[in-house]
Specification:
Catalyzes the phosphorylation of D-fructose 6-phosphate to fructose 1,6-bisphosphate by ATP, the first committing step of glycolysis. The chain is of the alpha/beta class. Helix content is 39%, strand content 17%. The longest helix is centred in the middle third of the chain and has 22 residues. The structure holds 6-O-phosphono-beta-D-fructofuranose (F6P).
Length: 336
């Protein structure tokens, strides 16, 4: 069998470890041929590929980013590098011309949607969920999330000492447009006093009261962790907006930090390396068994898979009933 592999959408730690997991299993265990497709779906439009050998897969396990490059090319939309052709049909033709028996798509929600559409056209696809945001429906965890949470937690830890020295409120903005998983997990792990996620509406008076109550109890500084996607005035970034509102509400000097792309760069954590390796290996196993149109998933501690058509278009969001929210509230953490 000959398989192609691509990475699409925003990068994240663990992509290269996944490529390695897929390809080494394919070459070593199943004797398959593997080609890397450059720049996501764009590479399927332009047939930009490279053949993989064991040698080209060395040094990938701890390497950040994606060695294949990525793009946000969405072939089912008109925009993009080629806009005047039927892009899905061109990709179908190119896959046949390249002799690919299956394409492995490593990506986030947008990629899962695209993969589901190609699967519906009869193309053999297996996908692997990738995003630091952890918002892909159907899997408990996507690789990249643990690494991002670890980086964000380290940043929050560092803010504690400077917040405490200056008796300030520190607001830190982490990624997550629609889902607040990084804010929730890093906020709890980093001992945040206020954690704001897009899924839970907030009231600035509650936030102010939490901070002033801490002051009354002899704790003159506070840490506020916000997801980038929370409600704002629509003009300022989440951290800037919340910091200004808090300073106005409490009169306490407040500073903001936007963590940004540092969350997405660099080496994956050991957890993500192993998750990527397991997911990659399972993707190849599905291909060998002729099970296509599926996304790899982690359920509990088991690696399994779900039908792409079930995943496409859904989001996994934080709920008020989540253990960490419930436990956080019981400990006096303000969620808005
Ligand atoms: O990878 C997901 C994500 O990190 C979001 O949380 C973030 O808002 C987005 O990607 C930004 O990525 P880009 O600027 O590359 O589109």
């Amino acid at each position: 069998m000959k398989i192609g592999i691509l990475t699409s959408g925003g990068d994240c730690p663990g992509i290269n470890a996944t490529i390695r997991g897929v390809c080494k299993t394919a070459i070593n265990h199943y004797g398959m041929e593997v080609v890397g497709i450059h720049s996501g779906f764009q590479g399927l439009l332009t047939k930009e590929i490279e053949s993989f050998t064991e040698k080209s897969l060395s040094g990938l396990l701890n390497l950040g980013g994606t060695m294949l490059g990525t793009s946000r090319e969405k072939p089912f939309r008109k925009q993009g590098i080629i806009s005047d052709v039927d892009k899905p049909a061109l990709i179908q033709r190119n896959i046949a011309e390249l002799g690919l028996d299956c394409v492995v798509c490593i990506g986030g929600n947008g990629t899962q949607k695209t993969a589901a559409k190609f699967a519906a056209m009869g193309i053999n696809i297996v996908s692997v969920p990738k995003t630091i945001d952890n918002d892909i429906w159907g899997t408990d965890i996507s690789f990249g999330f643990d690494s991002a949470v670890s980086i964000a937690t380290d940043a929050i830890d560092r803010l504690h000492s400077t917040a405490s020295s200056h008796k300030r409120v520190m607001v830190i903005e982490v990624m997550g447009h629609k889902a607040g998983w990084i804010a929730l997990y890093s906020g709890m792990a980093g001992g945040g006093d206020v954690i704001l996620v897009p899924e839970i509406p907030y009231n600035i008076k509650n936030i102010g009261d939490t901070i002033l109550n801490r002051l009354k109890k002899g704790k003159p500084y506070s840490i506020v962790v916000v997801a980038e996607g929370i409600q704002t005035d629509g003009r300022k970034r989440a951290a800037e907006y919340i910091a200004q509102e808090i300073e106005y509400e409490t009169g306490i000097e407040t500073r903001e930090t936007v963590l940004g792309y540092i969350q997405r760069g660099g080496s994956p954590t050991p957890f993500d390396r192993n998750l990527s390796t397991r997911m990659g290996g399972h993707a190849t196993e599905l291909i060998a068994n002729g099970q296509f149109g599926r996304m790899i998933a982690l359920k509990g501690d088991e690696i399994s898979s779900v039908a792409l058509e079930e995943v496409a278009g859904k989001l996994k969001l934080v709920t008020e009933e989540h253990d960490l929210v419930v436990q956080g509230r019981r400990m006096g953490i303000c969620f808005g």
